[in-house]
Fold these 3 entries.
Entry 1:
Amino acid sequence: MSLRIEEYGLIGDTHTAALVGSNGSIDWLCLPRFDSEACFSQLLGNEGHGFWRIAPTDSRCETKRRYRGDTLVLETEFETPTGVVRLIDCMPIREDNPQVVRVVEGVSGQVDMRMDLAMRFGYGSVIPWVRQVAGLVTAIAGPDALALWTPIETLGQDMTTVAEFTVREGDEVPFVLSWFPSHEEAPRPVDARFAIEDTEAWWVSWSAICTLEGPWRDAVMRSLITLKALTYNPTGGIVAAPTTSLPETLGGSRNWDYRYCWLRDATLTLESLMRGGYFEEAMAWRNWLLRAVAGDPADMQIMYGAGGERRLDEWEVDWLPGYENSAPVRIGNAAAGQFQLDVYGEVMSALYVASKVGGNLNETAWDLQRVLVGFVETNWSKPDDGIWEVRGPRRHFTHSKMMAWVAVDRAIKMVDECGEQGPVEDWKILRDTIHEQVCTEGFNGHVGAFTQYYGSDALDASLLMMPLVGFLPATDARVRSTIEAIERDLTEDGFVLRYRATDAHDVDGLSGHEGAFLACSFWLADCLHLIGRHDDARALLNRLIGLSNEIGLLAEEYDAVAKRQLGNFPQAFSHVSLVNAAYKLSGHPEVDDGAVITPLHARLGYPNLRQWRYGREKGRNKVSANRVKSGVSRRKTQK
């Protein structure tokens, strides 16, 4: 039986990430990047497709999990009839080669343990050549290689490396797995204990930036840590999730690869980072955005690789049966080639928000924005594929038109508020024209709400964004009735669906039910707050946070009938929306509409971002130097 999606935890090194099950098994890991081929693929298949499990041999055990404070160091505690052991997992923040560090600690009594390591490259299709030399187990196939170091004796068994050992109170048994290019020598393994302590210190330092206090502080902090873990550090890009093909419908075909960066997430991600005080990460995301979309606006994609790659060709992995037989397993994402008008609004809005906090953009960036607005001016009246990447016919989606309005509106604000130059009077005429059409064609009087596309009777959760982006105020009768219609007719157990799956085939070209979309449910909480239903908004937010697993992680969707999480996991958009909703409902200042959060560097007395970064790095280097003096360094290796 597969573990439930919510039974997994996340560890990562800001280049890639692994999913660790509550049973002590790492069932998903792509190396060396988020979008590289997986070397552990049991999540989407079976044991023959690769995994790494460390657990008691006695299955009669109770399990508890937690992160060490505000870090990404994961602890799993197994209580057996004979004793208690603790499994500590982390991926040290990368300096050279990616590494996974695991340490088994004896807490009480004694426990018999077993390690099973099945290394399979190429999404479980390639069995490597494994050999053991001087206590180091290496596995090589093609360009990839793994090296396992542990003081415990290992042996080969049925194409798997295994070890059995007993842990007593006070014992520590380390395991270090390193990836390296197969044409190079295996790296020296780090000292596991020091690596864990140094990784913990790095995350403690990073988390200390967040100053939020209040009833949702822990959930917000865990969400911000998750966003940092999903950041590809070399470029600042944030992937939607570290996984592919975790299903939106169990046993169905709604399975997509989310290991890429979506432009639709740009504005909300920037806001969540800045609300948390993480302006350095926000500016890195902004800079990734500028690099990714540079070029002909007609060629702008809805998503890119973590490095800004454009080719995300989609193909199916026919040897993997899929999570709980949810096939096909897809690699790449064909939606990258879709025309989604809303992304132009997302990009313009994100750059506007960033300019309000991070300073004005350079001249080249503004030139790019002017070109983007010019493209919207020519193409806003065309049908598109919509925010939900439907694979049915193109339509005049109401949300897409609204976001075209956002693109023009933010260009006008860049002129009026930020001193940029542009044909603002022409843009104002265009903004009014789009606004009038959306209000006329997008609102269905019979339904009493704005609907999914022009002439449609169907509701769409994306229209909850209408007051959030400033298209119309929440006090507008049409907006309020839309919010109430979605709350009444587009929810399951109070959680919001993107659109009704019973009518979906004609829209998205797919069959099957899907779960409630968690980001949309957080938007509903925002909207209830805006229309004055504060108690209802807080109650919904608390229910949504309650859907997190015991270590605070959320997938993309929630099945209200089966009472379980669905979709790729953990999902950045869900955590972004949690942060934003918690800040709004806590009464914190906004980052949009001109009311800007005071940047962290200003709060701490630094005149600008550069000086703050210098002070921050100086502090980190001092901490690192002190840890080296005390023998605690990530660079310390086993002899």
Entry 2:
Amino acid sequence: MNTHRPFYAEALQGGLVRLAEDLSSSSPVVNPLPREGSPLSEGELEHQGLRLVLKDGKASFYYRGEALLTEKDFAFDPLRTYVKDKIIDREHGATSSDLTAGGITLDDGVSYQKVIAFALDKESEFFALGDHVGPLSRRGYEFVNYNTDDPSDHTENKKSLYKSFPFVLISLKGHYLGIYLDNTYRTLFDFMEEGTMNLAAKKGNLDLYLSVDDDPKAVLYRFSQLLGRIPLIPRWALGLEQTRWGYDGEKDLKAVVDGYKKADIPLSAVLLDIDYMDGYRVFTFDKRRFPDPARFMADMKKEGVRVLTIVDPGVKVDPGYRVYDELVGQGLVATLDGKTYVNEVWPGESVYPSFNDPSCAETWGKYVDSFLKLGVSGFWNDMNEPASFRGELPPDVDFHGVSHEEMHNLYGYYMGKATAEAMKKAGKRPFIITRATFMGGQRYMVGWTGDNHSTFDSLRLLPAQLMNLGLSLFPFAGADVGGFGGDCTPELLRKWAALAVACPLFRNHSAINSKRQEPYFYDERTKEAYRNAAKLRYRLVPYLYDYFFGAAITGMPLLRPLFLEFPSDRLGEKISDEFFIGNAILAAPVLNPGPDVRSAYFPKGASYYPFAFGKKIEGGHFELVEGHPGEMPLFVREGSVVVLYPEGYSDLDHNPEEIHFRAFPGQGKCRHYVDDGDSYLFEEGRYDLMEITNDNGKVEVHYLHHGLGAYKKAIVETMDGSYEIDLQNR
């Protein structure tokens, strides 16, 4: 039985096909792409090898003559719970004929008005869908896209977390198919039954964008054209960050910086949690804890440490408080039945800005700018699902003409957008860490995975979580190192720090009621491991920065599942605990308690060498590998060049005079990008772009653009020793 109106189809420039109930509208996160040809409502459409057949109101997709997806009637599953007219039927009593215009209500108690079911190959694997936890492949699971503040332990049975990415990448019949459901209401993706994919929307239209290719990178590239790419990040954001809920002002923060310095662990930023505010009023400082915020941040900057501040959307109801008076006085907050809507969050009774209102975004931007002028370097957007303490916001709360149920998943997106635009207007590269967002949020912000826990389960689930975020076009993310809730054991912190070397965001954070989690509070063995991890991370910064420069152009993630580099090796689709860092470094983190030893798979199609050089490893089989304190097992593809800072270098505000190229046996090439790391002068040509070729350790450097002159020389590290290249006279 069809549960949607007839579809219309169109081909879009760039290899995408759109299948929609209404071609005249789309969500605000989509970049409009030019149409190729005329739309159709019945018949066949072929584009970039993807053939769509619309017949009798149903859609089927083919690629190179093979059927990929065939729309079928939605079938009730007797093992699940449905509600019809408030009567729960767990048996076979409900049939397709019972499905009315009111939709179906599943065991989550939510009625989905639109449902579409597809038949596909039973061996298909499903990826992406954002930061839901679980294995790399989503096969056998069901997920709900509805931004949810859930402080309980994040296990694989959680259907919703803080972010919503209604995008799935499907591996089927040797091809990769991407599908984006452009609907900001609550939506459901169901892969529980083999050979079936069900998509459902609580409200709104079923509007699908599809693209297929043998190379999954090609599919991601096309969707990044549609949904946007990350801007160039500030380089300092790749350094170590430290925060904690419960710091008592300047004295505590200075002690943190001193603790890191005495432990010989580099630090690039500290983040202020809600304690810094005056009664949790956003864009204020508590005068006791921070009597002179500008001086404090200037002092931190002299230590090479930037300060970021948390900002929640809830604005305290407090006449006389400027932010409240201006937002409410100008009608820039949510309303219900024509009156200002009030709920409760950290400040107590609070109002919610309508960030989708351009006037609200502009006013919010003035508050952002005032903090930038004090010396704040970035922002940490929290509680922006939006969260509330007195029950969820009613569905008809109005945000500048948009109901809460339509706006809910977009709320964090719009908050980040307003903040990013204000930072860019001030000449700052945006660095905004968000808890909640929607598809396309990578244009404005980076993310963290929310309130995780200090357990090995949280650690084990993290690589797949970050890989799937990257496959959702959200490449810069991380989790609280050591875990937010609970007490982190020394061994857990050691192994978490080793993994964090590869995570885009390396931030240690813990809750107020947990033991202190800064590494210098731990035993010498743990401090040494954390130090090793930190120093390796800073050596890798130029390599990581290169891939974020690339992500801004192509949309490709930094952390890549094995199949993204070797799609012909299907075994890589089953491996959740290994990944590539960029396209050269294979990481096999040790994620379990006990010995720092594990079995690692080396994909077919290449040979590999240990990161610190050593015996060649052929691809296509498993090997037992060993890590060291603070250093997860890392391997490099043959012929690769890894760009590194000199040993011990940690000044991310300046470029060193010397850069290192670690060249591995084989032939290969890469590009290295360098700019000043924090401004927009690159837009005026103030950057260098090098092409580096490697012939079994013989390295040549060619400048594709030479507008900065960042380095004087390069040290080439090979298995047989090192040598120097003059970079000045080129």
Entry 3:
Amino acid sequence: MSWQEEMVSELSKAKNGDKTHIMRRYETMTGKTKTHLYRVAKKFGYETDRKKRADKGECRLTELQIKFVAGQIHTTAREKKGTIMPVKLALDIAEQNNIITPGCVSVARMQDLLRERGLNKKALNASRPHSSMRSLYPNHVHFFDVSVCIQYYLKNNQLRIEREDKFYKNKFENFAKIKRKIFRYVLTDHFSNTIFVKYYIAKGETQDNLFDFLVTAWGHKKNEKLPFRGVPFVLMMDRGAANISKAIIKFLKNLDVEFPEPKGNNARRQGSVERAQNHVEMYFESMLKLQSTASVEELNHYALDWCGYMNASPKFLHTRFGTPRTHCWLKIKEHQLRERPEIEVLQDIYRNPFEERSVDGDYSISFKGERFRLKHIEGLIPHSSKVNVIMKPFTWPEVVVEFRGKEYTARPIKKADGGFDADAAIIGQEYKSMPESQTQQQIKLIENMAYGENWHKDDAPFAGLHVFGGQSDRISTDFIPKKSTPMNITKDTMEERRISMFDLFRDLSRAGDMTPDLNRAIRAKHGESITMAERDDLVDAMENNELSVYDGQLLVKGGDDDTLEAIAN
């Protein structure tokens, strides 16, 4: 017989005066309070002979008052720690604010009321009900998460092991001083729980590091003991800024990888990879103090070697399927293993998720050496419309064409003998008309409106339309005539206008070779200025090589001056 049963037997036989002594003895023996011991006795069948109250079991508080107390406890809870407000304090606040009459209910009774309704501390702190998730086969679903490796930090381009007294997890101000941290990127296959880890030095999470990690995790490894590879069909990750960047989302979409919208405050959703993070910390990073590394490259070399060992070792059997992770992953079938494309292809679709193309007159576009016919896309206007072409490696040569917010698929145009398009009409045998463009359809409506249904080539559009005559009459403003100043410049005044020798010599230099002798001869004959007519004669002579100097005199061949002829004689 247990001590609980012995206590109940003694209480049932004892008189009221003896029960106090019995309870004191059991209090000393168990270290429990009398209230707790009576509660235990009740569970083991003890019933007091005290007369029950007529209103026993009836609560004088309303449901609203009880929920007010529970509401204070729930809404003041901490995210991680849970409820922190005592029932005593919540009841006191309710009494202070006249929600509950002071002395109406005891703290113990309020605790019972909350427990009966599933609103006590234990119930409020319990995890929300959840549904379990399963994947169908290896590489069906991958999980990704990133965390800071607090074992290491970068100082003077060298990896340093952190000191716990300096970078204790609660001393955030010290940890924040580290500008370049070591980030641990972890990916798991949900079906086999295969783990892959890689480290990066950075100031924070970046989309370029995420891209590099994914293509590394999904590609062939430099470790034959780690055959894990391939692009998944679904990738689960949290709402980190780098994770939900447009570049990453488009990259995953182009690889036909589904990316379910993550929901906030749902740690259980990432449970698989969160456990893997702890696994890496315990079974890999715990050894870093025993054998440190000098660079992140060396750290990743050790991490890759550890992944090959941990995933395949019989010392790390997974509890769900009872074999090493790699053995479970090797159950993957041929159609389930999507080999990762070449890194150059992935870089192209990551940096250029789509390429713009103009639609030719035959409703076709050129893309990566192939031509695609788009006559099935409504609203295209040849020689005008532009479309976005998206290449998906797993469906190439089929492409996705985006136009006006809608996506269409297109396949390359097959070639016939002679290099002709296989879908082209054969001369003399068939005729294939292209669908009318939106512009052509509108032009037909416009022409019918302008000419009518039965019209000829020389007909004037909109017959009888008045467009000329009387247009000036539509101007209602009367303008005041403006006065003017006449110009008193005539041909004679232009010829008499004189210019300086500087302006003359500038014009002569443009027309021919201006020499010092010619400069002196012109100044000797004309002085410091010359008329415009004389300037024009000299410029013409210079352009025709008819201007020269002899014995200090200016000679103009064919001019009015007969000096050259007199000298020749």
